[in-house]
Amino acid sequence: MKKYSKQREIILESLQNRKDHPTAESLYIDLKRQMPELGIATVYRNLTELCEQGIVKKIKAKVGPDRYDGNIKPHIHFECKNCGEIIDIYLKEEQEHKISNIKKQVSEAEEIQCDSSEIYLTGLCQKCKTQVTG
Amino acid sequence: MKKYSKQREIILESLQNRKDHPTAESLYIDLKRQMPELGIATVYRNLTELCEQGIVKKIKAKVGPDRYDGNIKPHIHFECKNCGEIIDIYLKEEQEHKISNIKKQVSEAEEIQCDSSEIYLTGLCQKCKTQVTG
DNA sequence: ATTATAATGATAATCATTATCAAAGAGGTA
DNA sequence: TACCTCTTTGATAATGATTATCATTATAAT
User: Fold this and answer.
1) If we measure between CA atoms, which residue out of A58, A46, A65, A24 comes closest to residue B66?
2) Measured between alpha carbons, how far is B33 from A127 in angstroms, rounded to an integer?
3) Nucleotides of C under 7 A from a protein CB
4) What are the Cα distances from residue B104, in Å, to A95, A128, B10, B116?
5) Which residue from A84, A67, A69 is spatially nearest to A17, judged by alpha carbons?
6) Pairing mode, if any, of strands A57-59 and B86-89?
């Protein structure tokens, strides 16, 4: 039987309140301020658990360790190859619809059961675009 | 100045001939048969180099270490959550077109410069679908 | 052939993550 | 409340993947 833990609670809460996509370590450092006895293993354990429950999503960035996202509303990620920031992008309903259509077509054509899709974009974010370009 | 090396040649060649998406280690083990003096660091070094040149692509799988793909023709990846296999899926021209359209729209709306996109599907492959379901 | 420098292989070092395990906490039940 | 069982925790060792170091070898230009 799954039991309550204060640690799991604050990890989820923090992740849902943050607007960025922290690594396990940065979450750990942050939470240690309000719970100094917290251990890094507990953070990893709970992040894994929350991912399995589908409350949290793991992001495999191109650069650096895995990141975690407490926002599970459908959206895609853009990673800036210059500053490394990952920004959330919400597709319009019509765009979302096109994607799920393609997913359906592919599932049929390949005879697979596709239950999730992820779209990663890479390039230069607004800031870095102007900085790098001139 | 960049210099030729036999090692880099066989790494690229092997990757382009293989139809799977090997990890650095499995590539190393395989190539060691034809070149026993090959070192694992050389494999990592050259894979990184080839990725930077854009001749090879790195795949961050949900499970396990990074994989490499010698096929750079536009395609997307499907990872089976049961057997872990990664299969290539080629979108139809019209599907590809819809995606690049969305990419363009997003780039404008977000004021970013998006130069690459990756679509990642997850679920059950043909084999595992029938195995698990029935 | 000589020389400059890039690439290699062995291996140490690092980084991220997972495993282990004794102690503490949660959630029953008597 | 006291007790029991099982889960979770924190500390830390262990592991796995990748990168750094460095002496040696190979490449390519002169």
Assistant:
1) A65
2) 49
3) 5-12, 15-20, 25-27
4) 12, 18, 37, 11
5) A69
6) unpaired
CATH superfamily, domain at A73-134? Ferric-uptake regulator, C-terminal dimerisarion domain (3.30.1490.190)
CATH code of the domain occupying A1-72: 1.10.10.10
Contact (Cβ atoms closer than 8 angstroms) between residue A120 and residue B99: no
pLDDT of the residue at A133? 59
Which residue's CA lies closest to nucleotide D9 at its C1' atom? A42
User: Could you identify the residue whose CA is nearest to the C1' atom of nucleotide C26?
Assistant: A3
The closest alpha carbon to B99, from B78, B75, B125, B68, belongs to B75
Q: Are A126 and B124 in contact (CB under 8 A)?
A: no
Find residues 46-105 of chain B whose CB sits inside 8 Å of chain A: 58, 60-62, 78, 80, 87, 89, 91-92, 95, 98-99, 102-103, 105
Whether this model's pTM surpasses 0.90: yes
Mean pLDDT of chain B: 96
pLDDT in tens, B42-101: 999 999 999 999 999 999 999 999 999 999 999 999 999 999 999 999 999 999 999 999
